[in-house]
Amino acid sequence: MVLDAELARFIASPVMIIIGTRDTHNRAAIARGAGATVVKGSGMVEVIVSEWQWPDCIANIHATGHIAATFVRPSDYVAYQLKGRGTLRTAAEEDIRLSRRYVDDIVDTLGGLGVEPQLAAPWIVNAKAAVIRFDVEDVYLQTPGPGAGALLRGVA
């Protein structure tokens, strides 16, 4: 599913990134992303994750590939959840640069909302960065309110 430009910009903006995965016994593990991008024209999303901080999430991607990535703008809680199947790769220098920019931007964004940088630091880690690249199969609106959980149509 090719994502539209507006959703692609949202995903790449300073939003909180929460990743859900599952193992072969359907046991869940979570992670926080440290940056994301949409691969133009492909329907693929890449999320940077700390392999050091989130080893269970990484193991689950290796085992099943199933991922649900939720992107939430902290200023108004506009949120989208993307589901699909992914693979892992080691982060390249370009990914590390993207992640550093993301960390700086999200810390600034949260700071503007009153969250002190030292409080956000444990959430947003890119040590031993890995990249989860996944094909988007479903997109859901997750903004709190009457439309939350709706499968979005017309995104492709």
UniProtKB/TrEMBL annotation:
Tree of life domain: Bacteria
Entry-linked SUPFAM superfamilies: FMN-binding split barrel
Protein name, UniProt field: Uncharacterized protein
Organism from which the protein derives: Rhizobium favelukesii
